[in-house]
């Protein structure tokens, strides 16, 4: 995800572009840049890092004259965050500058072809291919050149284009990436999202796929690819900026919860090949290395560690290799037993967590093979790992993780199944069946998200409790740990997760009349056992919410033990964590909302924990 803006009008462009980008930083913030045309010269200013660095570099935009320009805030996908990889990208002739949001899927062969013809690339990005193609196809007419380019490229894009030879117009086009047009007395705009133009105008057009727009300071023309004009109704925006950045949701957390089906698809789909096998880009482990593994450690902090706990169950079950889930802060000081036959899987959304990074270094130093699951491209953990698998969750703004957790889980399933396949520990049929179920997860998650109103209602009932206990066995226990953390970190309710069979060894003394217990029972073969534990807490007065699968049959007396029940669809037992965590995230969110907590920025917490 990236953010693009463009402005052509009667005012200085650069300050307007910076103001627009400020409202798009939620789409990415690892580098930023602008290009402006002034006096026949097309100049690009760009830098790695937050928008503020760019702003300081160009004096808040004031030092750049010129009333036409484009801007970009980046979330790296192809090529690490660096000055060279930042947008805008210029074509070799210097005629074109472009900004892009999306992914050009066939950039590899296109780049190779252009290089063969002598084109020198200045970046590692997929985007630069578009700039170079504009040069290569240029026939003196930007419109027809652009049509040829979009007929050649595959993937998703919203593009903003400046041509130095036509210094009074911006072209833009989209396919499967968002793009809107803003209209004002002072000039016209393009942007990835409405908040970027709201400081200047509330009058907009939405663009559809494959529509090309040409902006000048006084005109906005929309065409189809055959240059037929398209008439579009103007729209008036009546939301405020902060609601618009959150896509109309009150908090980033709920927006990110709702984005999970898309984030999962983006993480899973590219790893499944047409012939039904798994391809792990960024992993160089050979069959022989995998077969020689004697132990796997999964090392992480917080929610990422909870993914590791799921990973222990799943990887052991599928590969029969012993797995330990380790807290990074403990692993680094425990003299870990790792050697060349150990695989250390590091999990981190930010890729900057200090303890996780230190654990990675410790593992490498001891000769282990390291494989990292990271969301932020070019982060320290990604840079220092020999093998990196990116979760394609996009930027996660809310401090409490949701979509990163879900995509990390998906990566764990793919890794487990990949190792099982490569080492011959699973039959072809079982492999295909599980892979089909992994690809169905995004749709199943989408169906569970429809339970949001029901959970919001339940949350009203539990919002003012002081304590909560989450119980489950095996994988249900692993999810209970995450569910409990989610609730406590954003609602400030004291909460603990217990292996359901363990509670009676001490902690059950805390259960009294009205204590809130959430029982997770989605692991079918263990449901009767967990139901017995529900009986134990119910007998001591607990108020029980049961999260279970659709076809769980409860006898009348069992149903009587449960105060509320949430049923979710079923999949293979090993994949159930991806589904059962969703109602738990929603419950935590709605309880915190009912308590009027600062959900996206809970007290004492930071998104990236770069201290020990
Ligand atoms: C909880 C949460 C944290 C992180 C932990 C690790 O909602 O987000 O527990 O999971 O701080 O962070 P990363 O994944 O960036 O290493």
Description:
This protein is of the alpha/beta class. It folds into 3 domains: 3-243, Aminohydrolase, N-terminal nucleophile (Ntn) domain (Glutamine Phosphoribosylpyrophosphate, subunit 1, domain 1); 252-446, Rossmann fold; 452-594, Rossmann fold (3-Layer(aba) Sandwich), CATH 3.40.50. It is built from 20 helices and 24 strands. The strands form 4 sheets. Strands 3-2-4-1-10-9-11-14 form an 8-stranded antiparallel β-sheet, covered by helices on one side. Strands 5-6-7-8-12-13 form a 6-stranded antiparallel β-sheet. Strands 16-15-17-18-19 form a 5-stranded parallel β-sheet, with helices on both faces. The two termini are 30 Å apart. Bound molecules: fructose -6-phosphate. Residues 301-304, 348-350, 353, 356, 400-401, 485, 489, 608-609 line the site of fructose -6-phosphate.
């Amino acid at each position: 995800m990236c953010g693009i803006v463009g402005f052509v009008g009667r005012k200085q462009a650069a300050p307007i572009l910076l103001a627009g980008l400020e409202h798009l930083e939620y789409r990415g913030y690892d580098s930023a840049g602008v290009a402006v045309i002034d006096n026949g010269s097309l100049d690009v200013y760009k830098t790695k890092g937050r928008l503020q660095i760019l702003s300081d570099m160009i004096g808040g935009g004031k030092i750049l004259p010129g009333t036409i320009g484009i801007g970009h805030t980046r979330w790296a996908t192809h090529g690490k965050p660096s000055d060279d990889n930042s947008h805008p990208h210029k074509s070799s002739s210097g005629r074109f500058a472009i900004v892009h949001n999306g992914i050009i899927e066939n950039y590899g062969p296109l780049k190779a072809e252009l290089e063969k013809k002598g084109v020198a690339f200045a970046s590692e990005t997929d985007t630069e291919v578009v700039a170079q193609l504009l040069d290569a196809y240029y026939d003196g007419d930007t419109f027809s050149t652009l049509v040829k380019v979009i007929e050649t490229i595959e993937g998703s894009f919203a593009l903003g284009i400046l041509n130095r030879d036509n210094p009074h117009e911006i072209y833009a086009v989209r396919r499967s990436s968002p793009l809107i047009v803003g209209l004002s007395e002072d000039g016209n705009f393009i942007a990835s999202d409405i908040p970027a133009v709201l400081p200047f105008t509330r009058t907009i057009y939405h663009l559809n796929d494959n529509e090309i727009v040409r902006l000048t300071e006084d005109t906005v023309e929309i065409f189809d690819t055959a240059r037929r004009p398209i008439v579009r109704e103007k729209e008036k925006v009546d939301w405020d900026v902060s609601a618009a950045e959150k896509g109309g949701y009150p908090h980033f957390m709920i927006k990110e919860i709702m984005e999970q089906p898309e984030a999962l698809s983006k993480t899973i789909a590219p790893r499944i090949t047409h012939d039904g096998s798994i391809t792990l880009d960024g992993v160089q482990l050979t069959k022989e290395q995998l077969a020689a593994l004697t132990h796997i450690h999964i090392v992480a902090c917080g929610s990422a560690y909870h993914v590791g706990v799921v990973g222990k169950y799943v990887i052991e079950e599928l590969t029969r290799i012993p797995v330990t889930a380790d807290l990074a802060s403990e692993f680094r000081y425990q003299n870990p037993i790792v050697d060349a036959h150990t695989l250390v899987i590091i999990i981190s959304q930010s890729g900057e967590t200090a303890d996780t990074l230190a654990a990675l270094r410790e593992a490498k130093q001891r000769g282990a093979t390291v494989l990292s699951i990271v969301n932020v491209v070019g982060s320290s953990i990604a840079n220092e790992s020999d093998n990196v698998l990116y979760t394609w969750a996009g930027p996660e703004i809310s401090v409490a993780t949701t979509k990163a957790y879900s995509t990390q889980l998906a990566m764990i399933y793919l890794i487990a199944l990949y190792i099982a396949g490569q080492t011959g520990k699973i039959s072809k049929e079982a492999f295909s069946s599980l892979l089909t179920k992994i690809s169905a997860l995004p749709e199943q998650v989408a169906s569970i998200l429809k339970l949001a109103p029901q959970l919001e209602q339940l949350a009203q009932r539990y919002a003012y409790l002081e304590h909560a206990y989450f119980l489950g066995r095996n994988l249900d226990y692993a999810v209970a740990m995450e569910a409990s953390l989610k609730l406590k970190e954003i609602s400030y309710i004291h909460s603990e997760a217990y292996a359901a069979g363990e509670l009676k060894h001490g902690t059950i003394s805390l259960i009294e009349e009205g204590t809130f217990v959430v029982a997770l029972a989605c692991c079918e073969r263990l449901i009767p056992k967990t139901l017995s534990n529900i009986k134990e807490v119910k007998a001591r007065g607990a108020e029980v919410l049961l999260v279970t699968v659709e076809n769980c049959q409860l006898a009348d007396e069992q149903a009587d033990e449960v105060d509320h029940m949430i049923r979710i669809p079923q999949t293979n037992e090993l994949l159930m964590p991806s589904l059962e965590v969703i109602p738990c995230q929603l419950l935590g969110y709605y309880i915190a909302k009912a308590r009027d907590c600062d959900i996206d920025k809970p007290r004492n917490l930071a998104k990236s924990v770069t201290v020990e």
